[in-house]
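Sequence, please.
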């Protein structure tokens, strides 16, 4: 996801890439630093330990062995490579640069003569490639390779990886374009990646292929038979892989640590309850699981696997941006509304069904066992950024803010070494963060999001500069022939004060559009110290048009107040309960801060003055909310993103209310 080549003729806003935005923020700078100094290196060690890199050594022929792990393992390394490339773009790190170079070489040398890369197939049974695009994620992996390659080229100027990715994309065009193969990509990702590749290469065949993949959804004849055949294919392919590994082990008397582990996918399904298994089979056969239940232009509600849905919507939005396909945009607007009104948690998390990692029916948003995968939150941010650029509507930027500070941020521990995969809204003390997951999609996804966070702050339009997020930074933004240096200082997310400074060589008339967050109770605005009376309605952009001069400044205060949020009464498990929020943050009670209470049975007094206090020593520095429960005892609430950073513990977001 990088924006160096601007196309998108149907968008209202033009993106400003993170490369032009230098983040220097009270809150986020620490996160970015931890991400680049700790997480990215720590993740590489995990990828090494879990054979993600070794698989490429085997595929490239420099090491004898077999591919180990899941069929989608390559994608996790690609996502890491994308994150590492973003980091290299903004910070010099010779050690990281060297490691990136080595991995790029391995990938390059793993490519077959005709352009194919996938270590699961190429090391064992190349002839079986693309026989199962429903289950086996080759196109998903290809999509992540393309995105990593674009990021790598931008960061280093090297063409090494982009040439590899383009060659692979050309093979996909050759094998698929023109409806040459029946099937639908089971895990979306290739669609947006091909459109990103189209933007930098101007090869319209990539756009065309993305269109075909998008249009195939919901249009596969004899779908149930197709799905059953693909599942049979998956079982036999995974088994064959296992047999091949065993044969290798026998022949070489190898003592590999995990030579032939059962496929986690097969294990995962077999460990589910009977009900969970029935749901998986039903959702696959009716097409919901992979969003192939209806043709995309007829989509009304988000269904199935939540990450897949988000990546599809990103691809659809990208396709609209290039072609102006209005029916696609209408479908996206409809499905967004449905998601926000009935299928999304208060944290911005999505996907409440564990078995399918996906959406359930309206208002079925249980807190225990809620899935809310970190990757789904990230996909949701990515989709909303696209919707924002297309429409310039404030609600998309508001939602990005909510997800960013809650559903996404909870996915990485404050020390940058541990992660969550699913994110419950209540915990009985058994949910622990992990250093790594065998299915390692989330950790590198967080890393690439944080390292490119600058993408979310600004846009431009013909009229001027749009400020979507309040994060301390300095950015260089071109308006006409003028380069405007925009500097932000802010107390977010703890305080609602923002100072914006403009530096420009020559005065210029243009607009600044400021997002007034939906949560702002009252907004004050001063320009060069003078109070302004613009309409400052929450949940909208205020347009300030004037002839801007060098050193002009804006002071904005968004008043935030700790408050209770009532749940929609249609969510059964939240009836009689309320959640706490302050500004963009959702709060929770963690048992260790509330030793005198049972957080699950205590009722919080609805009518009381809540106290917000900054605690610099706690959890890396947080605002806590303090108040009383009905027995008169005190409670302490912490931001949801910060829970589970002091070991597993009981936690709750929706509280009983007195
Ligand atoms: Zn994930």
């Amino acid at each position: 996801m990088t924006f160096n080549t601007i196309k998108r003729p149907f968008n209202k806003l033009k993106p400003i890439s993170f490369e032009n935005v230098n983040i220097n923020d009270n809150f986020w700078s620490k996160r970015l630093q931890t991400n680049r100094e700790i997480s990215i290196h720590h993740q590489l060690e995990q990828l090494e330990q879990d054979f993600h890199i070794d698989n490429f050594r085997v595929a490239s022929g420099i090491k004898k062995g077999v591919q180990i792990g899941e069929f989608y393992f390559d994608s996790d390394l690609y996502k890491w490579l994308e994150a590492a490339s973003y980091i290299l773009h903004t910070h010099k790190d010779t050690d990281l640069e060297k490691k990136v170079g080595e991995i790029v070489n391995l990938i390059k040398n793993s490519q077959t003569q005709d352009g194919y890369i996938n270590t699961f197939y190429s090391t064992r049974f190349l002839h079986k490639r693309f026989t199962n695009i429903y289950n086996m994620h080759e196109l998903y992996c290809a999509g992540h390779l393309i995105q990593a390659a674009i990021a790598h080229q931008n960061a280093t100027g090297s063409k090494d990886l982009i040439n590899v990715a383009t060659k692979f994309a050309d093979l996909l065009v050759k094998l698929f374009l023109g409806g040459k193969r029946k099937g639908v990509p089971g895990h979306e990702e290739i669609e947006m990646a091909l459109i990103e590749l189209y933007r930098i290469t101007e090869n319209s065949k990539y756009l065309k292929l993305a269109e075909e993949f998008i249009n195939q959804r919901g249009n596969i004849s004899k779908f149930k038979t197709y799905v059953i055949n693909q599942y049979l294919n998956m079982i036999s392919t995974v088994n064959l892989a296992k047999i091949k590994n065993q044969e290798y082990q026998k022949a070489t008397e190898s003592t590999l640590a995990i030579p032939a582990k059962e496929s986690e996918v097969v294990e995962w399904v077999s460990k589910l309850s009977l009900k969970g298994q029935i749901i998986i089979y039903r959702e696959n056969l009716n097409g919901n699981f992979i969003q192939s239940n209806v043709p995309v232009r007829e989509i009304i509600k988000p269904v199935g696997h939540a990450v897949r849905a988000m990546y599809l919507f990103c691809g659809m939005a990208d396709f609209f941006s290039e072609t102006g396909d209005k029916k696609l945009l209408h479908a996206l607007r409809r499905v967004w509304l449905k998601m926000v009104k009935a299928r999304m948690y208060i944290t911005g998390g999505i996907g409440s069904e564990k078995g399918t990692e996906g959406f359930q029916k309206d208002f079925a948003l249980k807190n225990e066992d809620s899935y809310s995968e970190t990757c789904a939150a990230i996909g949701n941010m990515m989709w909303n950024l696209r919707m924002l650029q297309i429409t310039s509507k404030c609600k998309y930027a508001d939602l990005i803010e909510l997800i960013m500070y809650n559903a996404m941020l909870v996915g990485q521990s404050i020390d940058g070494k541990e992660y969550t995969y699913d994110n419950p809204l209540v915990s009985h003390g058994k949910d622990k963060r992990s250093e790594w997951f065998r299915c390692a999609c989330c950790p590198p996804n967080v890393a690439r999001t944080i390292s490119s966070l600058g993408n979310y702050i600004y846009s431009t339009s013909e009229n001027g500069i749009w400020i979507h997020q309040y994060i301390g930074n300095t950015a260089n933004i071109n308006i006409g022939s003028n380069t405007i240096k925009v500097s932000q200082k802010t107390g977010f997310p703890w305080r609602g004060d923002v100072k914006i400074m403009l530096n420009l060589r020559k005065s210029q008339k243009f607009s600044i559009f400021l997002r007034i967050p939906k949560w702002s109770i009252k907004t004050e605005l001063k320009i060069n110290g003078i109070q302004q009376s613009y309409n400052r309605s929450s949940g909208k952009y205020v347009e300030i048009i004037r002839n801007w001069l060098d050193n002009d400044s804006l002071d904005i205060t968004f008043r935030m107040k700790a408050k209770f949020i009532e749940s929609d009464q249609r969510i059964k498990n939240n009836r009689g309960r309320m959640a706490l929020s302050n500004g963009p943050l959702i709060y929770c009670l963690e048992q260790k801060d509330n030793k005198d209470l049972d957080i699950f049975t205590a009722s919080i007094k609805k009518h009381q003055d809540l106290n917000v206090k900054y605690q610099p020593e706690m959890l890396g520095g947080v605002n806590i909310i303090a108040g009383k429960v009905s027995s008169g005892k005190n409670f302490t609430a912490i931001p949801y993103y910060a829970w589970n950073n002091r070991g597993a513990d009981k936690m709750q977001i929706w509280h009983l209310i007195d």
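The longest strand covers residues 482-490.
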